[in-house]
Amino acid sequence: MKTSDECDRSFRVCSLVRRDCENAGLGHPALGRCTQRKYFSLGILRFRYTTGMFSIHPIPFFFVTFTLFSAGALFGLWLRSSKSSQVETEELSVKALLGASLGLFGVLLGFTFSMANSRFEERRHLEIAEAGDLKTLWLRTSFLPEPVRSAERSLLRQYLPVRLRFFDEGPEGHGYEGALRESAQLGSRMWYLANDESMVRRDPGTLQFMAALSEGLETTEMRTAASENRIPALSWAILLLLGMMACVLLAVDMRSRSYVLRGLLQIALAAALALTYDIDTPRKGFVQVGQQSMMRVQELMNATPAD
Q1: What is the pLDDT of residues 22-40, one digit of tens each?
Q2: What separation in angstroms does the CA of 236 have from each of 96, 232, 254?
Q3: Helices 233-253 and 91-140, axial angle in degrees (round to 10)
């Protein structure tokens, strides 16, 4: 007999798989008892990543940001040269606005960087967690009798490369939706096989395999959601607005004629934003979450002789 925890996990995965199958036009009578259970579904099959900023490499992003800040600085120089008398009269006000805009920019950038860094760590930990779940699932296939064991191992050998391709593509890739749909269908087929076997054999080995499969599907969904969780575009827009404002006010306030000194702030602000953007971008740029753990599991699967 199943324990209460195992039943709960089975029901939750049943719900997840059932909703995915309904989206794909599939069905299975054994999943009918799960229709009343609520759990997160693979809704990302219908909704693509839309909360982040446009997808470009961090280097072009740096140059675009630097160009915007430089345009703001040039506008500030024009204001200083064309309205020099008013600028000198309002010098204290300009300094106050400059300090306020830089302070607000620093606070918002600090929060944004913290958000990006926490998301990066979450993606890194979930990559290890998914690899661990797949390794456990692979090892527990030995609990299953033939021919279910061979069928599950064959599906796992197909499933892992699809997951690797899915995260290599990233939410912005052309093959993202196809890889997501294929991995969901393979996960459904693995569940069907295990569920059918559990109807015939309610032995501890089959139940342990189903528990591992349940946890693996949950981790898969969590990692997929984490890869799509990006800093909102509104935060980037406000940061760019505050940065441009600071560049305009600094150009109005600065008396130096050195182009190097005038350009230092633009470079610093653009570099800070580009670094934050790079950390927040899962599959582009220089700071990426590797898939070494998943690849080691793939090596384990390939090293296991075929049944």
Answers
A1: 444 444 433 333 333 333 3
A2: 24, 7, 26
A3: 150
